[in-house]
Hints:
Layout: E1 7-10, H1 16-24, E2 29-32, H2 36-43, H3 54-59, E3 63-65, E4 76-79, H4 94-106, E5 112-115, H5 123-136, E6 145-148, E7 167-171, H6 174-185, E8 192-194, H7 198-229, H8 233-240, H9 262-272, H10 278-288, H11 290-300, E9 307-311, H12 327-336, E10 340-344, H13 350-357, E11 369-374, H14 386-389, E12 390-398, E13 413-416
Parallel strand pairs: 1-2, 1-4, 2-3, 4-5, 5-6, 7-8, 9-10, 9-11, 11-12, 12-13
Antiparallel strand pairs: 6-7
The structure holds nicotinamide-adenine-dinucleotide (NAD).
Nicotinamide-adenine-dinucleotide binds at residues 10-16, 32-35, 38, 80-83, 95, 98-99, 102, 116-118, 151, 153-155, 257-258.
Amino acid sequence: MIENPRIAVVGLGYVGLPLAAALSTEFSTIGFDIDEGRVKELKQGHDRTGELSSGALRDAPLSLSATLSEISDADIYIVTVPTPVDENNLPDLNALRKASQSVGTVLQSGNVVVYESTVYPGVTEDFCGPILEEVSGLKAGTDFYLGYSPERINPGDKVHTVDKITKVVAGQTSEVSELLARIYGSMNNGNIFIARNIPTAEASKVIENAQRDINIAFVNEIATIFGKMGISVYDVLDAASTKWNFLNFQPGLVGGHCIGVDPYYLAHAAQEIGLDPKIILSGRETNDNMSKVIAGRINDLLTGPSKLLVLGITFKENVPDIRNSKVGDLIAAFKEQGHDITVFDPLADKEETLDEYGIELSDDLGSGYDCVVGAVPHDVFNEYSLRELLKEGGLVADVKGMWRHRSLPDSLRRWSM
Ligand SMILES: NC(=O)c1ccc[n+]([C@@H]2O[C@H](COP(=O)([O-])OP(=O)(O)OC[C@H]3O[C@@H](n4cnc5c(N)ncnc54)[C@H](O)[C@@H]3O)[C@@H](O)[C@H]2O)c1
């Protein structure tokens, strides 16, 4: 097959950009995105997702473009566009449809189209393949070939980066699988697992995140039970995790566009074939309800409408990504309870937060609060003096246990799950 492939990565977000940069050190690589603003920023050396430093971006021999014709001579297309859910929690495949249509217009005989977006089994071959065929007039499996390689990177995680994690690949033929193993293997020392076929690779990714979601839901459920019993779930987990086979998941809000979304893809696929994925959907319901549970527990410890400082709005610690953050639900619940809320997050973009949640981020921390809610454990919050933020008798509501081991003056009260 193709000896020295030219690669086009379609979609330059959290997944596409680091991947394109890593591949560009071995292969002629171009990154394409429909968002002209994003491409312009990247060309200026700024990655707003924080995944690549400006140095890494400048050093990567990567071409960038928002013009489709500029990727028309690629041999391999790697599609890394979003796969969210709609308002009914059903898979929204629109970005995949549009990206496949775009690739279809430039597709040529002998090309390979690899999808990296998280999907349910069957999407690559039964949804994307036919779109590529229709637009290009070529036939999948004979004129061009499909492949799937799930992405496992974790936003903000500087340890498990694309060059260090095992990459699962699958091609429509064994030659395509071998080609993908060679391409991806060039960036991670050959650390490749070739899955039996494309649906197996798709299934493997979606269950990785569904499994995490279910395990976190279990811990959230026991956190709620033990909370009512006056037992700290963190103390319980410390004790239980000394057993060799105990799975040590942490309680909390499950947001973002992976763990809180992907299980719905699997549930949808199950329902389409007449099954009722009870465990998967029950896990989702438990996790989605946690903002209400947490707001209820904190409210019980306050005497009427109070002045609250919420620290953190992003969906997880130390990242700027606010998409599908469950802190938005937590704040909405506090507002419904009549509290006066200040939200502070130095990592989040102010304008984006206002657009997405209607929440105005404060420029400064302020003081004199009845309660400080540690919603997202950004490292920077460790430096704050809780004593200076709170009134005498104020409550430290430590949602993620980030101040668990910090001693507090007797004048402050503390709540954690
Ligand atoms: N974020 C993660 O850490 C992560 C981890 C594993 C898997 N995934 C999966 O990878 C996929 C991409 O996620 P992401 O976080 O990188 O998304 P993202 O929103 O950060 O980036 C997607 C990019 O694709 C671009 N795009 C959208 N439609 C396009 C089109 N038709 N043509 C070209 N570009 C287009 C957007 O402008 C955006 O820049 C999703 O399926 C996600 O579930 C994400």
